[in-house]
Every structure is written in C-alpha cells, then in structure tokens.
Amino acid sequence: MTTEPIYDVLFLCYSNAARSIMAEAILKDVGGGRFRAHSAGSHPSAGVDPYTLDLLRTLGHPTEQLRAKPWDDFAAPGAKPMDFVFTVCDDVAGESCPEWPGQPKTAHWGIPNPAGTAGTEAVRRLAYADAYRMLNRRIGLFINLPFAALDHMALKYHLAEIGALPRVA
Hints:
Strand order of the largest sheet: 2-1-3-4
Number of strands: 4
Number of domains: 1
Number of helices: 5
Oligomer: single chain
CATH architecture: 3-Layer(aba) Sandwich
C-alpha cells in the first residue's frame, strides 16, 4: 500500500501581509490534508493586513495562526525542505531569492497588490476580493494536478501555465 506524500508549499510576496497570507489560508482549507501551506515575505510587515484578515474571516478561514514571517525562516540551515515555492507578487519575482532547502519546484503566480488600490472602501475591498478569487482559482487548479503522473518537466509546465492565467475574470 502506498500513501500519497504531503507536500510543503511556500507562498512568497514582499510584505507577507495580504496575497501570500491569503494563499496560505486558502491552501490550508482546500488542500485536503495533502499539503502544508506556509507564507513569507522578503520584507515582512509588522502584521497581517486588516482587510486581508477581515476578508478571510468573512469567508470562514481561520486566521488565528496567520502572521507575517521573513522568508529567511524557510531558507535557514535546518529549515524544513519545501516541495513548491510560488511567488505571488511581481516585486519578489524580481528579487534574488535564497537557496531553498529541498530544491523545490518554483513558479511565479503574480497577483495585483490589493493594498496598493486607491479609492473608496468598497473599491479597496473589491481589490482584496479579486486577489482572493484569483489565488483561489490557481490553488484549485494546482491541488488537482495529477502529481504522481507528471514528470518534472510536465509539472514545471503546468505550474507555469497556472501562473500565466489572466489576472482578471
């Protein structure tokens, strides 16, 4: 009898306050025990964005354990190896990332930063909801990939394809 592995997934963004936190919360809920979700930032903020926490709570995600973390925590000697590392903001995709233990598969899944949205309260909340929707769609596709049937190159192709999905719709 073979058991399916549990994959460790790290989502990265600049401040680890909105998009990567959303991705961590989504994967924890929809991963069906097959994934351990983590998030971090290259320049983590002092805390999680209040609009992010409000949206996640409204959608029924637990938020008590969510916090902004530096990506160095996941690259330090002795750190748990990751199976997948996804950048979810364009700023981090252009940075020089640390060497991740375990040689994880990586992809860029750029999502517009909702914290940078100007306008009314309704406009700002809509930006957060849009970011959440895009991440939820990508994560849904990711968790349904037939990992056991894909070789390294095919998996890399599918991860990049997911990241190339339109940012709208």
